[in-house]
Structure formats: structure tokens, C-alpha cells
Records
---
Amino acid sequence: MQSLTDAEWAGVATTLAAELEDAAGHTYDLGKFHSHGGYHAEDQLIAALPGPAPAGHYRLLIVINRSPCSDISGIHKATGHQPCMERLIDLQKNGIGMTHTFELVVNYRHLYGHSNEERALNSLGVQQGSAAGISFLHGEGYYDVGVAQAVSQMET
Ligand SMILES: [Zn+2]
């Protein structure tokens, strides 16, 4: 699968690279997707599925610079955009087109959001995804002290 560049890891745009892997270990590179114009990188990935892969069950590996947006913070309610975490949970549970099913593995570097509070709320979105069976790996940005403080304040 493709790698993210340093500029993409740190960029304002959400960028992801993805591939499918079948039970025999054969992989299908799905390429790289960037957010633009209110159309999130995850939306574009879902639109591109299943790519070249024949009907079957696959591990869907997503490497992405920030965690999928969730509805918990409410920041997308005004735009009507369906939160990417909801779409990925639907993909994990239902697959697509009666022909392809997926086990999602999402490797992200930072939590989504413009403030510590938003990032803390979106960490709960990641927990929703985990509860639905999605596997998450996270980078150093997950351990941001400000986010931990915001979560702590939410719990009081
Ligand atoms: Zn999104």
C-alpha cells in the first residue's frame, strides 16, 4: 500500500491510504484519498470500494493522518455530512452490495478536531467504532495531555 508523505501526515487535509487483504494474504491497493470541498477522505474511499477485489471477505487496512470524524461533538450537524465513523461502522457491520464484507483496521496518528474538547469527544467516537468491531491503532497524537485533561473535565 502507499505511504503518506510527511506533508500529508501534518496537513490540513485528511489523507488516507488503503488496501484490502484476503484470507490468503493477497492484497489489493486501493490508493490514496484526500479530503476536499467538504467531501471527506473516508467518503471517497467508500465510494471507490471494492476497487479491483472480487467478491469475498477482506481485511480493510486504512492508514490515515487523523481519526474518522464522529457525531459526538456535533460539529457536522450544521453541514448535514454523515460522520465518517458512522459510515465505517456501517461498512464493518454490513459490507457493500451483498458481495463484499470487511474487517476494518484503522491506523491513525491524531484525534480529529480543532480543540482539545473536540478531540476528546472524537476519542469517544473511536470507542464507538471499537465497540462495533473496528480495530484501531493510534499514533503519538492520541496521548496529547490537553485531550486527557478535556476528557477528565467531561467526567466530572
Ligand atoms: Zn469525516
---
Amino acid sequence: MARKCSVCEHDDLAEINSELASGEPLRTIADRWSVSKTELMRHRNYHLSVSAIMAKEVEEIAQANDFLDQITRSSGTHSVYPRQGRRGRGA
Ligand SMILES: [Zn+2]
């Protein structure tokens, strides 16, 4: 975990990641960014999978939340507030 990954430290990490994610051949990517194929492979297995999946999940969760928010808003959130107002203690 503490070991540095030359791909993670690469200036163009985002580009490399997207190429890896899009299924470009390792040799092509390695060649293009002057990193070793072995490093790329290790990076893909141990680093990219996690960050790519996480990024995807975060995006999906955000979308889901957005969707829920829309449903909640359109289906009766407003009914909560009047009820709270009417049930004042001691009134
Ligand atoms: Zn890495």
C-alpha cells in the first residue's frame, strides 16, 4: 500500500485510466505514456478497479439520490409541514 505506483504518479493519470477503462491494449498505453506494461497491469488490477468502480458508484448514488429527491419532492413532502405546524404543544 505504501509502495508508489508509477502510473498513479503519472501526470496523465486520468488519461491513462480512461484508456485502461476503455479497454485499450496495455502495450499501446504503455508505449504512449512511457510506463511499463507490468506497472500498468498492476495499476489496473489494484488501483484502477477500485477507483473506477468507486467513481462509478458515486456517480450512480448521486443519480439515485437525485431521483429519490425528485420523487420525494413531487409526492407529498409539503404535507409534512402543515401537520407539524398544527400540532403545537400546549396550544
Ligand atoms: Zn496505480
---
Amino acid sequence: MRVCLPLFAVLLAACSTLDVAQPIDLVAGADWQPWEIQLLGSAAQCWNLRYATKLQVTQSPRSVQQVAVSYSDFICLYARGVTEPGLPVQVYLCPSRYASELRSVQERILFVLALHELGHVLNIRYHSDDANSVMAAGDAEGNVYMPVPDGFTDGDTRLFNEANPGFEPSPPGCSPVAIHTFPFGCVCGR
Ligand SMILES: [Zn+2]
């Protein structure tokens, strides 16, 4: 019997909303290696580039808006990533080392997971029906191979705008944004 588990999960209880117009500090766990922190920063840069948000990775948080990003073995039982929108916001990721011993695979999984969960940090509580979206619910097969989205879809933009009504940054974000691998990150344009 195949037991289907959500690839990504978000807890809807205790919802709070961050102000995406203001800096949001992402604080990685003390056990995170430099390459992991760098990937978290790359994922944050993608959102900043596309939607003009102000996610920033720091180990010395100064913003009142802080997000703790850490690994959790427990959440691996039912998801690869979970964002709890309380105060402070907590992002829990299933360690990618459980999926593969290959660093390249671990990097891809961490990048895709971080990219997705940061959407929840930016107040998105739902998933896109478009499987190509950053905010897609993900497959239920637990595949080690996690495709990297090409970019943000119309579904992602709709979810972001619905989650952040009235947010009109100046200058606006770049559109389209291409999500790249080797190295992981985003560039303005295709
Ligand atoms: Zn999700």
C-alpha cells in the first residue's frame, strides 16, 4: 500500500502576517553549514527579485520580523518542509541528507524546499494547482528527484498578491525571473 504524504505542508493554525514591505530576517540553525546558508540566501534572493520583498539571511537579526529556519527529523514523517506562521515564524525542513548522500542532490532538495517554504513565510497559506509553480503542493511520492521550477508562475503571483493585498513596491519586482541551477539562484529575465 502506498501511503501518500504531502511534500510540503503549512500549518494554518495561529496565523500571523508579516509585513513584506519591511525586512524579514531569516536565521538559520546554528548547525547549518556555509553551503546551506548560501542556498537559503539564494532562495530568498529569488523572491526578492521577483516580488521586491526584503528577505535577508543573517545570524545577527535586527528586524522585528524574524524567521527561524531549522532542520527537524520529526517532520520527515509527514512532510519535507513545514512553516508555522506564529511569532516568531518557524520553518522546519526535513534534512536533505536523508534523501541522498550526494551533495548535488542535497543542494537541489534544500534549494527547492527553501524556495517553497519562503513563500509561506511571505504569508502564502495555500498551494498552486500548477505543478510548475514554486508554490505547487509537490508530488506525494517522496521522489528524491525534485525538479527545480523554471520560474514563478501566474499561480505563484496570484497567491502572493492575495496573501499581501495592497503591497505595491516601488520599484516593482522583476518579471519574469528565471530560476537557475549551477549555481542555484535567480536572474531577471528568461
Ligand atoms: Zn507548502
---
Amino acid sequence: MKDEPAPLLELAGARAAYGPIEVLRGVDLRVEAGSVVALLGPNGGGKSTTMKVCAGLLPLTGGELRLAGRRVNGLAAEDAARLGVCSIPEGRGIFPNLTVRENLWVATRTGTRLRDMEEAAYTRFPMLGERRDQLAGSLSGGQQQMLALSRALGTAPAILLLDELSMGLAPMIVTQMYDTVAQLVAEGLSVLVAEQFARAVLPIADTAALMLNGRVVSVGTPGEIEDHLSSGYLGG
Ligand SMILES: Nc1ncnc2c1ncn2[C@@H]1O[C@H](COP(=O)(O)OP(=O)(O)O)[C@@H](O)[C@H]1O
Ligand SMILES: [Mg+2]
């Protein structure tokens, strides 16, 4: 018998709710080590909620969240971060009234030194180095996403959760951001990325999952899932 390693991150029959309203209604999803999984589907399907559950930001009401095969239901966001799960929320989660440098500094509370965080960020994105004393809110959308990525990568995560990386960005910038993600994956990172507009992420995805009404209704190669896109409801 072959000994398959457990997926890095796995949801099995995951349920979650906002108050009395159940939003995730039995989500099954696996992210294997070293892979990129694209979570696709129309607005309101439950993609962001899935990301929140994976990051420990919203508790499960049923089913299981597993990290490297271990059941971690109920873990706090800090614990998730310590275990290598790092997330960039929808809207990027940066502080617009702090400078680039101060935004990186806030991210050092997980234990990384500011100097190391800055060096890594400015090496990867020289544009951020040039703007280190500028308010984050004055950066372009693409630069803000670079800052969000730098903050997330400061903790040396094993898996990165990206929610709507492309939102509000020009197509060329989206392509650049996904090139950067592909490079991080080549360096060993695993990624779960939620996108309403699928075209940009499919080229770098190993697996695509289609989410509708709080469930993953189909999983396949990007090519297989792209066939569903022709129906148009995924946009992009
Ligand atoms: N904080 C919240 N409180 C109540 N309902 C929410 C909240 N966030 C999302 N929802 C609802 O949960 C459902 C799924 O939303 P979401 O996970 O954001 O989907 P997606 O990211 O795929 O657009 C939607 O019906 C949305 O209105
Ligand atoms: Mg969303």
C-alpha cells in the first residue's frame, strides 16, 4: 500500500455560519503540499467564508479542519499563523494610514525581525523599498497587494490563503501578481486562492474547485473546470 502524505490543509464536511445563517454546508477541499488550488465561483458562494475558516478566523459548526492530517477545529488565528497558515483577506488587510515600513512592523508581532522583514520585502519588490516612508493608502492597488504579500510572507508560511488577489487591479498587474505567486510556489509555498474571476489564476493552478451555495460542487484540473466557465457565470 502506498503511504500518501496527508494534505497540508483539508476541509471535510466543513460547516460554518454567521449567527443563525449557515453559509458553509459541508465543504470538502484539499490542498496538497506544494500545490496551488483555485477556489472559484460566483459572489456569495462562500469562498471568503471558507478562507476565514481555514485561517482560524471563523469557527466550524460541523465537519473538520485538518492541517497536515491533524484535526485543528477551533484553533485561533494566532495558532493557525504559528502552524504556517497565513492569509491575505479580501481588501488586503493593510493599514492605509501607516507607512509601508510601519505596516511591515505591525506584521513582526509574529516574531520576525523588522530588518529581515524589510529586506525580504524590498528585495522582492524594490518599488516598496522606494516607498517605505509613504502611507500605504497612497500606494497603487498593485503596490498595496505587494505590501500585503510581503506582510504575509514575513512569517514564512507553509500555506498562503489569498482572497481575491485580482480585485481592483488592472489585468497586467494581476498577471504580474500571479507570476510572483508562481515564483513563491516554486520556492515551496502552497497556495489556496479564491477568485470570482478565474482567468488570471487558472494558468498557475494545479487544481480548481468550483464553489456554489456553500459547497464545493466540482474539483478538477484547471482545464476541466474552465469548461464550466464557458457558461459565463464566473466572469473574467
Ligand atoms: N459577516 C457576515 N455576516 C453575515 N453574513 C455574511 C457575512 N459574510 C458573508 N456573509 C454571507 O455569507 C454568504 C457567503 O459569503 P462569502 O463567503 O463572502 O462568499 P464569496 O466570497 O464567495 O463571495 C453570502 O450570502 C454572504 O452574504
Ligand atoms: Mg469573497
